[in-house]
Each structure stands twice: as C-alpha cells, then as structure tokens.
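Subject: Protein record for review, amino acid sequence with backbone structure tokens
Why sent: The fold of this protein is of interest and is recorded here as tokens.
Enclosed: The protein record, placed directly beneath this head.
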Amino acid sequence: MQNLRLRVMRDSDLDQVLVLNTAAVPAVNDLSKDELVELLEWCDVALVATNRDGAVIAFLLSLGSGQPYQSENYRWFESRGVRHQYIDRIVVGESARGTGVGRAMYESVFERARERGASEVTAEVNTRPLNARSIAFHEHLGFRQLGEQETKGGQVRVALLTRPVDG
C-alpha cells in the first residue's frame, strides 16, 4: 500500500466516492448521492483509501446485522438468523489495484466483526454480469459460496459468500 492512506470516509469524500462507484457499474449497483447518504447511516464501517494527493482511489461500505437496509442480498443474509458483518460494496480504482488496499479494507471489516461479536463476514459477487476479479479476490481471502440468487428482476445473478470471522 505504498503512498496510500486508509481512513474513515468523510462527507467531503462523497462526490469522489460516487464517481468511483459509477465507474464500477455493473460490478456494483449505481447509487445516487441521497442513496449513498442513507446507506451511510446504517454502515459502521465506511472507509476510503487516498493517494498521496488526497484523491479517493478506493472505498468500502459495511454494516452489521439488524439494520433496516432493504438490499435483496442483505435481507437474504439477515433471513439466516446468523450475526454477521455485511460488506455492501468495495470499489478499488485502477490505480490502486494490486496494492493490497482491498485486503487492508477487509481486515478492518473483520476487526469490526470481532468487536461486534459477529460470527461471519458476508458479501455477494455478481456472477451475471460476471465479476471474475471479485470472485478471485474473495476466494483468495477464504470466502465460500452459500448460495446464489437473482436480483433486479432477474437482470443480475449473485453468489452469496461468507467467511468465518476467525477463519
């Protein structure tokens, strides 16, 4: 993570976060600023990575169990009744890929999950449209697939992933 700084997301980061998020569609869902602000109300982990000039080059949003978030994927994990820490999205810009920033962000999520007493960290990855880079990243970190589901009226198919907090 040479010349990268990991820190808590600030309100002043939101415009840059939205630009990164939009550039990553369809690997992640598009968000309006209002949707992002609402999602941040439920997140207990909201991180950005910045380059030496202070530009946001990666971000991660994660929330614990019991939130009113209506994401189809979050609701699927909630329906299992297992205390979890859900990773809603991670976006790593081109300039930050291969630097270890994604792994560092996930380590922060696992730390938060331990603090909360969660037994697992959960996430989903698109299988249609295919997000092969994210699938490989999650496999490398030890995530395993629990199931699959179609969302967005059948336009998107996701693999539902989990990894034990202490696994």
The domain at 5-121 is CATH 3.40.630.30 (Aminopeptidase). The longest strand covers residues 56-64. The first helix runs from residue 14 to 24. The two ends are 24 Å apart (CA to CA).
